[in-house]
Design goal:
The protein is of the alpha/beta class. Helices cover 50% and strands 11% of the residues. It is built from 54 helices and 31 strands. The chain has an 8-stranded mixed sheet. Strand 10, helix 20 and strand 11 form a beta-alpha-beta unit. Helix 3 packs antiparallel against helix 4, helix 7 packs across helix 15 and helix 8 packs across helix 9. It is globular and about 100 Å long. About 7% of the residues have low confidence.
Length: 1315
């Protein structure tokens, strides 16, 4: 094993001791490897080796903690192996070996964990110090939500009953449409933010201090005013830069005569920049008067004039907004603040009351949540009664236990976690043994109250030493900026963007050479050299599409997300043909270090896949690109789960019209009603008294709920079916003549519903769900639909969720539905079932947050034109951790709300924080790629926007930073990316492409669209109308050009005759139709024993997407059931031939075969096969591990081969032109299928396929399936045979259950592609 080569900075991190150490580790810098090596060096220190349980290692997720613990265990094991390999060990080496062997035992219980798990460890070992019961339980999030809602409801009810006037005033202020939900949400938000502080009650008190100021002068001295002043000055400085540039243009020869006006503007900038306080700034802003620009035109260059005017207009726009927001009278702003003080006090008092009640309720139920664990741990480690909160004796003991506290992903810590870990590290007592590693540029978890400011403050205060420095420090900072993940092209692209936009005033870090990404990876060759092309195939790209309705309509797409997905799909198809990536599976001696791209090498990152992720999956799948979304959301929105939840909701409340209609129209509760039947039921409600008196029959229907209609129909139906005489005044009589089957259907539905409702009081929820899935056959129904296994897994997951619910302190269906509703309303969504693994060859679509810490060969970052979510910076109440809580001011007389100065200050800070986080999210996205990075987005007026950016920022030199107002004014990522790239001039002009749908490739920024081949054809001008122009004078050149355009022929037209991917079934059916001369509508498959039982659910199964409500044929169902048995049959058993009945029963018992499927199986015909010699050969292969069953495959075939297999004339392409045929022949078409069975015997492959068709003779079967078996044979040979292990085909056969014998196919070497 080769020795790892550490960089000088990495060696510093590994070796530094006896100090607080902050490691700023850029993306891909190998921080985890360095952290593990540091730990190993501590454990193997020859002078003072540590035990692994003397280290506290805290990381962000359980998965990361488990991975780190495993890496440490492996590293210790390697060290043990090395120590054992010593031939003549010294006593010291023997002692080290003994020490390391002890570490292998200790590592399993070592505190390498998450902060939550460590806090749980502290609380469970010291529960008595906080009067907590020792058998407390950590509640699920859904249960906590229910408890929280109960406590909140109780709190609100109590204050209503008390007729608390302050509370009533608050409700009056914030109630919306007669509901107090908004007020409850505000209290929850305040409580959540306070809970992220080490001492929530103290934070709440600090929030009230802001409103206790005594005068306008006191208000202007508040920290929030100083922060606001600094932001205004930053904007003034940005305007000053714009005006200086405009002044330079004015002074150029031919420049406009704008100097006088610009000088006046610059004076405003300077006066604001030098203002000593906010009141002076407000005065300046209120007195601004703009000088009119000179209109002199003589000798003025119009381009210079336009550019100078645009720069001045940008500055003017910023100042106008500042004047609008901040030119008010400070005394008036003080009055607004004072007016809202009583409301804030009531809010804070209610929040405190809620916090106490919530904790008491959880203690009564003996449950805690994760926030409780952290606060309880803090109370154990720090004295809550002392205002200084010193360390307790428990904290001092833990401090002595741990030689070092290591914090991974430190940029995501919050104030509460900092207080806990600093106590364990003994920072209060002068200890310096905290190791912190992270990257503030990757702090993207503000929704979890992460505080990147903690990292930044130490980044500025800690000493930064070189590797050669001899200075001894107690607090040191080391930067790891070398990136071992990405190619140089990607690093340059990311650096060039963040040099322009990431600064300390927005992003928290001044992005410069020291913190930029530097190449550390060793790739095999330069990109251009490998490709042999002039362009670099590894260069980063930005591809943009116009938000054009015509383009959408032409492609049959619905929205811009689908258009962007189509653009990405076309780019992926090109990459799959052209792109090479490093072969990490390369074996020693391989000549080519690169390999072709696979779909699994590609990931598509979206800011929020919940909205557009499925659009991308659907579009890529339609284009023949396997794709899968790993968003972790969407479970409750899946069709099968939402319909089953509708059934549970109906059982809980029969008068829930939405749920009742959903259940009646779906298969979830048996045979569905049609929409016409639902209308008849809805129309059958008897006249209401009020409607009858008024003679308004339409009023009757509107006033009735659907259950009332159904109940009335049930009553009527029972009477009619019992032979009672119909009341002539009743409505249903004449309606039911339209559907005489409806009465019985209604009775059956209502009886089933009531029977289930009767079981609810004494049936556990999970058992009720299981029984419903079984009794209604809904589980089997969804399994039979496309994607059935995923649908089935989703429904079974609901059973697991019910079991989790029943493990809480709640019971009953009502509570369970409330529990589910809380999960949905608070976005505690579950992940839909996933049946794709890491090794499956499919494009992954995931969120940027989920990609953090991961890497991929090819990364698409999509949706960059979508607007940022800025809802957190607006609203009646805003919360900011440092500034506090701001409320919009109410005008009681006019019943209107307005923004106070404080509210605007908090809003500005929230906006700045949100944009800073979005910038860090972009950094994470751009640093996931190893070899190829492609950005994409859609914009309106695309070409105009690109030209504007080019003119505004071209030719900027090194050190240029996008002005503050432009960075703060960004609405989406492209507002940062486009001007940044444009500022580098020609460097990235060729990397930005404008997408034209349907073309192979994209236009480079700057190209005219007319250059694109085929545009005239798409415009639809008939070529035969050209002669109409010949008599018009001066049109000769135009005619010549148009004739040339209309003479153009698309060179790949023949490729339109083919799909990008075929299934074996498609090829098989095409071949059968041609081979058998099938007439339209003729059935190829005849039913087998149609009088046998077919389950009710199977008769009702219809194909999705409304394909004429086509029913699945019973013969096809039997074929599926027979194949399922043959797939599950255990051939490795010695009694395989005699245990068929036993195995069938076992398949049914363990759920592999349903009762309905078992009823379709023909055991005697399977038994006949098991008596064949072929079955015995399969048995021997199974015992020896040479049997392969249900093997999926994907292989590439040329179009000519597809034509031959489908029985089409090979001249389909060549009739177009020889060029067409050649062009089509260049591409490979994917074919996918699943092989029933093959085995290897004596170095030969034998392939077997089961057939349940009723046929008269062997030739009929061969004629139907020869194409299919030929594909299977080719696929098996390609997969199993190689030069190292050559295999040949021993035989290809089918077993016909109808004929009861094997049918062999005679395939030539030419049929098998020469194999």
């Amino acid at each position: 094993m080769s020795e790892t080569k550490w960089t000088p900075e990495q060696r510093q991190v590994i070796r530094a001791r006896d100090r607080d150490l902050l490691v700023s580790a850029a993306a891909g810098s190998g921080k985890t490897a360095v952290l593990v090596e540091r730990i190993i060096r501590m454990l193997t220190d020859p002078d003072a080796p540590l035990d692994v349980d003397q280290l506290l290692v805290v990381t962000f997720t359980r998965a990361a903690a488990h991975e780190m613990k495993e890496k440490i265990r492996r590293a210790i094991q390697e060290a043990v192996n090395d120590a054992r390999s010593q031939l003549d060990p010294t006593d010291r080496q023997k002692a080290l070996l003994s020490h390391l062997q002890r570490q292998l035992t200790l590592v399993h219980s070592a505190q390498i964990t998450t902060i939550d798990s460590f806090c749980a460890y502290v609380v469970r070992n010291h529960f008595n110090e906080i009067d907590l019961e020792p058998d407390f339980r950590i509640a699920e999030e859904g249960e906590i939500r229910l408890i929280a809602q109960e406590v909140m409801d109780q709190l609100m009810d109590e204050h209503y009953e008390m007729e608390d006037q302050a509370f009533i005033n608050l409700v009056d202020l914030y109630a919306r449409r007669g509901k107090d939900d908004a007020l409850a949400d505000m209290l929850m938000s305040i409580y959540g933010t306070a809970n992220a502080d080490p001492w929530p009650m103290e934070w709440l008190d600090r929030c009230s201090d802001i409103y206790r100021v005594k005068s306008p002068e006191d208000m202007l001295r508040m920290p929030w005013v100083q922060g606001l002043t600094n932001r205004i000055k930053s904007q003034a400085e940005a305007c000053e830069d714009l005006l200086e540039e405009a002044m330079q243009l004015s002074r150029l020869p031919g420049g406009p005569h704008y100097q006088e006006a610009i000088e006046a503007d610059l004076a405003y900038c300077e006066s604001i920049r030098e203002a000593e306080d906010f009141s002076r700034i407000a005065l300046i802003l209120s007195g601004i008067q703009w000088k009119k620009l000179s209109g002199k035109r003589k000798g003025v260059d119009e381009e210079l004039k336009a550019r100078a005017k645009d720069l001045r207009d940008q500055s003017k726009k910023v100042f106008e907004q500042l004047r609008k927001d901040y030119s008010g009278d400070p005394a008036a702003e003080f009055d607004k603040l004072s007016a809202m003080a009583p409301y804030l006090k009531t809010l804070l008092d209610l929040t405190k009351e809620y916090a106490v009640s919530f904790e008491a309720c959880k203690r009564k139920k003996n449950v805690v949540d994760f926030a409780d664990l952290e606060h309880y741990a803090l109370r154990i480690l720090r004295d809550p009664a002392d205002p200084a909160h010193p360390m307790t004796e428990t904290a001092e003991n833990l401090c002595r236990q741990y030689a070092e506290v290591m914090i991974d992903e430190y940029q995501d810590s919050n104030n509460l976690q900092e207080a806990i870990l600093s106590a364990v590290a003994g920072s209060d007592q002068g200890e310096h043994k905290t190791f912190m590693v992270g990257d503030v540029k990757q702090s993207i978890y503000s929704f979890r109250q992460a505080r990147p400011e903690l990292f930044n403050s130490k980044l500025k205060s800690y000493d930064k030493l070189t590797a050669e420095s001899k200075k001894t420090v107690r607090s040191q900072r080391i930067d790891l900026s070398r990136n071992f993940r990405s190619r140089q092209e990607i690093l340059d692209f990311a650096n060039h963007i963040f040099y322009r936009v990431m600064q300390e005033d927005l992003g928290g870090v001044a992005y410069h050479e020291d913190v930029a990404l530097h190449l550390g990876a060793d790739y095999p060759a330069t990109a251009a050299a490998v490709s042999g092309k002039a362009e670099d195939p590894y260069s980063a790209e930005l591809i943009l599409c116009e938000q054009d309705m015509e383009a959408l309509e032409a492609l049959g797409l619905e929205d811009k997300a689908e258009l962007e997905a189509n653009m990405i799909g076309e780019r992926i198809q090109r990459l799959m043909r052209e792109q090479k990536v490093v072969n990490e599976e390369e074996e020693e001696g391989d000549q080519n270090p690169l390999r072709g791209l696979r779909y699994q090498d590609i990931v598509i990152l979206l800011r929020s896949p919940g909205s557009n992720g499925q659009v991308f999956v659907d579009r890529l799948t339609q284009m023949g690109i396997p794709a899968h979304i790993t968003s972790g959301k969407g479970y409750f929105d899946t069709v099968e789960v939402s319909r089953f939840l509708a059934l549970l909701s109906l059982l809980n409340n029969r008068r829930d019209d939405r749920s009742l209609a959903a259940v009646m129209l779906s298969h979830v509760f048996g045979e569905p009603f049609t929409e016409d039947q639902l209308y008849l039921i809805r129309s059958a409600y008897p006249r209401l008294t009020t409607g009858q008196d008024r003679g308004d029959e339409s009023r009757d229907i509107q006033n009735a709920c659907l259950w009332d209609s159904l109940e009335a129909m049930e009553s009527y139906s029972r009477g009619i079916l019992a032979g009672e005489k119909e009341d002539s005044d009743q409505r249903p009589g004449y309606l039911l003549e339209l559907d005489i089957s409806l009465p019985q259907k209604v009775l059956d539905f209502c009886d089933r519903l009531e029977a289930v409702r009767a079981r609810i009081p004494y049936t556990p929820i999970h058992r009720l769900i299981e029984e419903l899935l079984d009794e209604t056959a809904y589980l089997n129904y969804v399994t039979a639909l496309p994607g059935g296994q995923i649908r089935r897994a989703n429904l079974l997951k609901l059973v697991d969720e019910a079991i989790r619910f029943e493990g809480s302190s709640y019971r009953g269906l009502y509570r369970f539905m409330n529990y589910i509703q809380k999960l949905r309303s608070y976005n505690v969504d579950l992940s839909a079932a996933e049946l794709i693994g890491e090794e499956d060859d499919a494009v992954r679509i995931t969120s940027i947050h989920k990609s953090k810490g991961l890497q991929y060969p090819v990364v698409f970052v999509c949706g960059l034109g979508q607007k940022f979510n800025m809802r957190d910076s607006s609203g009646d109440m805003l919360i900011e951790t440092d500034l506090g809580i701001s409320l919009r001011t109410r005008n009681a007389a006019k019943r209107t709300m307005s923004d106070s100065l404080f509210h605007r200050a908090v809003s500005d800070q929230r906006k700045e924080n949100s944009l800073a986080e979005e910038m860090r999210v972009l950094y994470v996205a751009l640093t996931r790629a190893k070899e190829k990075l492609i950005l994409s987005g859609s914009l309106p007026r695309l070409k105009e926007r690109l030209d504007q950016e080019w003119e505004a920022t071209r030719g900027k030199g090194d050190g240029y930073v996008l002005p503050y107002h432009r960075r703060m004014g960004a609405k989406n990522y492209l507002d940062w990316i486009l001007p940044s790239l444009a500022s580098y001039g020609e460097l990235y002009r060729q990397s930005i492409h404008c997408y034209i749908p349907g073309e192979d490739g994209a236009l480079t920024w700057g190209q005219e669209q007319a250059e694109s081949p085929g545009r005239a054809d798409r415009d639809g001008t008939p070529a035969n109308h050209l002669e109409d122009l010949k008599d018009i004078p001066g049109t000769e050149a135009l005619l010549q050009y148009l004739r040339r355009v209309f003479a153009y022929r698309y060179p790949y037209a023949a490729s339109q005759n083919y799909k990008s991917k075929y299934s074996v079934s498609e090829i098989k059916h095409a071949s059968m139709q041609l081979g058998m001369g099938e007439k339209e509508g003729q059935e190829i498959f005849r039913p087998v024993d149609e009088d046998r039982y077919v389950p009710e659910f199977a008769r009702a199964v219809t194909e999705e997407r409304g394909q004429n409500n086509k029913k699945i044929h019973p013969g096809a169902l039997r074929g599926t059931a027979m194949h399922r048995v043959m797939e599950c049959l255990d051939f490795a058993r010695e009694d395989y031939a005699d245990s068929l009945g036993e195995q069938l029963d076992q398949m049914r018992a363990d759920g592999r075969l349903s009762e309905e499927e078992l009823g379709l199986v023909l055991p005697d015909r399977i038994q006949s096969f098991l008596k064949q010699d072929m079955a015995d050969r399969i048995h021997r292969s199974a015992v020896e591990g040479r049997l392969y069953r249900e093997q999926p495959f994907v292989m590439g075939l040329r179009p000519q081969e597809i034509d031959r297999l489908m029985g089409r004339q090979p001249s389909a392409a060549s009739k177009e032109s020889e060029t067409d045929a050649a062009a089509v022949g260049e591409d490979m078409i994917l074919v996918q299928g699943i092989i029933d069975l093959f085995f290897i015997e004596d170095g030969k492959i034998f392939l077997l396929d089961y057939k349940t068709d009723r046929v008269q003779d062997e030739s009929e079967l061969v004629g139907r399936y020869q194409a299919q078996l030929l594909l299977y044979a080719q696929a098996v040979l390609r997969a199993m045979s190689s030069e190292e292990k050559p295999l040949c085909l021993g035989g290809v056969c089918m077993y016909s259950f109808a004929l009861g014998r094997l049918v062999y196919l005679d395939l030539s070497k030419e049929d098998l592609g020469g194999r």
